[in-house]
Amino acid sequence: MRLYFTLALMSSLFIQLTSQSVTYEKTLVDPIVPLGVVDVQDIKDQYLFNLTNIETQDASAHIIKHKLIDIKHQIDEEYPKKDINPVNTRGDSEPPVIQYGFNGQLATPGVPLDNSLASNGEQILIAMNNHFAMRRIDGSAIVGFSLDHFAADVGLEGSTFDPRVVYDPESDRYIGVFLHGFESGDTGIGIMFSQSNDITGEWAVYALPGNPFSNTTWSDYPMINVTSTDLVITMNLIRDNEPWETGFDETILWQLDKSKGYVNEDMNSILWQGIEFNGQNIRNLCPMESADATLESNSYYLSNRNFDIENDTIFFVELSGGIDDDDATLSIEALITDMPYGAPPNADQSIGFLQTNDARVLEGFYQDDQIQFVGNTRNPINNKAGIYHGIIRNVSGAKDISLEHIIPEDLEIGYPGITYTGLEPTDLDAIIHFSHTSSTVFAGTSAMYYHPDDGYSDIIELKSGDNYIDYLQGDVERWGDYAGSQREFNSPGQCLVSGTIGIATRDHRAWITRLSRPAPISNTDDEIVADQSIEVFPNPVSHRVNFNFNVPDGTKKLRVAIYDVSGQVVHILKNGAVQKTGESTMSFEINHLSPGLYTVSVSSDDRPVLSETFIRQ
Predict the structure, then answer these.
(1) Of 3.40.50.800, 2.60.40.1930, 3.30.230.80, 3.20.20.120, which CATH number belongs to 535-616?
(2) CA-based radius of gyration for the chain
(3) What does each C-alpha distance from 217 to 3, 187, 232, 284, 357 come to in angstroms?
(4) In this prediction, what percent of the chain has a pLDDT beyond 90?
(5) pLDDT tens for residues 217-251?
(6) Which of 44, 190, 271, 345 is the most exposed place for a label (fewest CB within 10 A)?
(7) pTM of structure
(8) What is the biggest distance separating any 2 CA atoms in the chain, rounded to whole angstroms?
(9) Contact between residue 558 and residue 574 where contact means Cβ atoms under 8 Å apart
(10) What distance in Å separates the CA atoms of residue 207 and residue 221, rounded to the nearest whole number?
(11) In sequence order, what are the beta bridge partners of 339?
């Protein structure tokens, strides 16, 4: 069965923003009628069938064309890789803490391995190119099924690909988006809304046209975002019989009433098109998700000149207002970074290479008037495949943007994600994760921690690979198009990340890791404490802990706090004036605490003095 879509376009509004050389068109679309409801309990996909073409592919499953190959050849000629190991000047931050990890999928995932995940803190929905896996938070399996099988239950038959999933923390619901069809005549967008907070229950499924203008284009590479009222989908339109690199037509933006999807009702939608700057269409609009559980009404998106060998422009796009705001508009601003980015070379394996695609923005978040984002790039030190970390400060005013290249020793890295790990609204720390490889290191996943005051931590390995990846014909293998990550909203300071690893059979797999921000670190300022140390006893301990330390001279206010392994404050023992300084002893009961690792942190007049861990037996 093949479904064809028609739209009645109405209330068309054309807006010209001459001050920023921007044009766009906003169109109210007839309500989208649900196709039906799929109950996961009724899915019987015993065979978990997977069909993967092993010819060398591009991101749209077409045979690779010359544009991307030419770009990679140009990079190799103009910027040959060098065996230069950079000096580590990252900062004083401690690395993130690995809690545990597990294999993500329950079947063969397909090529490329497009990782996406969503979690409410109890269940995890994991999406890969043609496969869904539902797991408990500890990694134990619930159920898995093919994306084709799920789509066929509501009549969306054909090749399905590019799934994205997201958890809505305000509504306590899940949303998924996927594509099907590679030509204008059969292209479509599937949208799925959980009807409860249980991913194994019912899902209402809708369909949007992949060719909304009834021309010769089809939809590719979706990215999704949730606001306080909307589901927003950004989409690239690709012309028939052309590869995604050269066949790009334009990027469109769908704005949908998410509340209707959660109750299986007809859903209002708005379509934005003609999104350009200085007469050139912008592609790959990447949403900047709300970092914490408080969703915004406005939403932000970033793009760049992703195929350029070197560029310093980031396009900042703001959608003001939700689906019911008649005055909602798009504004676009070109920001100039202090450090250039550029399309990366393919990454080395022990045999062959891993495809790095281009330098598009891959993931980011918004918090406290700041945006942080990441993407692939050629690093400027040794011309190897690397990633960038960008920050836009003062989002609501005169924006200031900076870019930092993440350059590891002896590795090439790609397909990063970034997750907010702050505990307070003004915290702006994050965990950055990515896949790694080299001619001597099998494909695996890594991560690092960033704090605005202490800088970047060392890179830690989350999961090592067991072999190089060799699944397709030719010497260039698919690494993925994106990686998944999400903050755990019910456990601030913790997150889930998904990356690609090579396995013994030379195939690839998604590896899920649960991480937490590091415990508070000691201050390295010599003016505070020169030879400060803390003595905790006994350790491990089951009832009462004692510790000796030195209160610095001149201290007016002393703060002593207990943190758990995720960096969350368990209790503030003291936060006030002290009568005497110098050698001191303090003790407290801990028999009411759950067994585990904790940290005692001491600060003098709001300046960190020291920290030490103890184990509650």
Answers:
(1) 2.60.40.1930
(2) 25
(3) 16, 9, 20, 16, 22
(4) 57
(5) 999 999 999 999 999 999 999 999 888 888 999 99
(6) 44
(7) 0.81
(8) 81
(9) yes
(10) 16
(11) none
